Amino acid sequence: MTARHRTSRAVFLRALGLVYAFSFASLERQAAGLFGPRGIQPIGAFLDAQRGAFGASAPLRSPSLFWLTASDVALQGAAWTGVLSGLLLALGCESSVVLGGAWLLHLSFVNTGQAFAGSPFDLLLVEAGFLSIFLSSSLSWKAGAEPARPVVFLFRWLLFRALFGVGVARLRSDPCWSGLTCLPEYLETEPAPTIVGYYVHALPIPVHRVLGFAALFSEIVVPFGFFGPRRVRTFAGVVTFAVSALSALVANGHSSLLVMALSVLCFDDAVFDRVTLFRRLLTGLELSGLGRTDRDRRGGREPREMPAKPAPGSSSGGAGRATFEACRIDSELPKAVRGAERRGFPGRDVAELETSGGAELDRVRFVGVLAVCAVLFTLSLLLLPRMLSPAPGIDPSLEPFHLVSVYGVIEPVERTRTEVVFEGTRDDVAVGPAHWLEYELPCEPGDPMRPPCLPSLYLRRLDERLWQAALGDFRREPWVVRVVDDLLRENPAATGLFAHDPFAGKPPRFVRAERYRYRFSKPGEPGYWRRERLDDYLRPFSLEDPALYEYLFRRGWLRGAGTRSR
What we know:
Layout: H1 6-34, H2 43-54, H3 58-61, H4 72-90, H5 96-112, H6 120-135, H7 149-173, H8 175-178, H9 183-189, H10 195-201, H11 205-220, H12 230-251, H13 254-263, H14 269-273, H15 276-285, H16 294-299, H17 318-327, H18 335-342, H19 347-388, E1 417-425, E2 437-439, H20 461-469, H21 479-488, H22 492-495, E3 510-520, E4 529-541, H23 546-554
Antiparallel strand pairs: 1-2, 1-3, 3-4
Helix pairs in contact: 1-4, 1-6, 1-13, 4-5, 5-6, 6-7, 6-13, 7-11, 7-19, 9-10, 11-12, 12-13, 18-19
């Protein structure tokens, strides 16, 4: 019996909608501070530089809606539109228009976000989001049409590349992975530690070895099962989902959340039909193509017709059904059929037009989808040698829409955690007895007594990027100097990215960046971290410092002349 994926599609698109909604919600809170006109890396200035370097071809090199405008209002409007699109998908709206809009909005941020965009999570979401457009049932003339098999295959191929690429890179990056001894250091040094990871770190070494083996097994061996028969594929999907869920809990891995969503497409409808919860939920929402009878499930027959849309003013179905009907693209009948009905053709002639026109539209749709899938699959094959090479990496320059990327950027595991901590003082001197106050990030170690964050779907982009900056010096991450300038000016767009402003709106006299080494505290020790100062990441600066002025001037980063009154 041919496997069906209508229920799998519905569950996946809901999960993808949640990922979109949380991703855009985090962008909305951070857009002004990161990308706005007074942000750390303004999108408008970046696009002006692109236009100056490439002229009329610049929009083709960095496709983005922000070529129209990159004001704070535009950035937050785009983020809120993305949140709404994600919520519509999560509520069951399978419109290709909504999927395409969410993808284009996310791509707009990825192509212009500079240092704070283009992470593995971003590129994986771009690729999955584009594929999901062709998974939508609204592309077919028939409600609840079966997803095209090439699209389902490409989703499994994407999941394979994402996991296998990371697994290969992990083994190649550090021998401690093959020795199953990496997990304690990994939990202590990963970008966004969680309170769950803190307690897992305290478990005995044999438990760490088992968890490390499970991670490697799910990345190196399990992905081959995505292309096996139903039982093998179901086992692979369950293992991938479970290991990714654990990874999201202990490491705030946003890519893991997207992998969990992708693993849903390893299951066909026969698997979901055995789960009463899913069957009742999806049937209760009365989504198109999901209302199958018991006989349909046993025999694999076509789905029955869904109940007719209630007449205006009727209470049947409520507001929820109206929402789903409004989201659905009206493609159940070809335009010729709808036109024939309006002109009063007999029902028999309309039925004939429906059959012929619908079949023709389905053939055109399938050919188009097959052509897109063939191009994407070919591109992914061309990137396989790069994924397996000694120095793989995410290559966002393959094409500007990032439809195919290489996954597998794994640095050797750091043995100790280093963090950059910004500090300010209102004292007139920056040496000796100066009293320094810390700017703490929401989910990076700061105060050793503060516990790590709870697992969250909220992606804190400054936190993650500063974690990477601490591994080198400010020459690799020059935007750090701009953060210092913004803190000296008490720029609310920048201070809003921190957990709190220690100067309560009054600008400090000096700001510096210190580098600390952090380790998890041992059981029985006070607090959650032990830390020691390493060195100055950036020496103290004031607004009157000519070296700061010159550095910002040469990069075109000056906010304005003069200093603020104190």
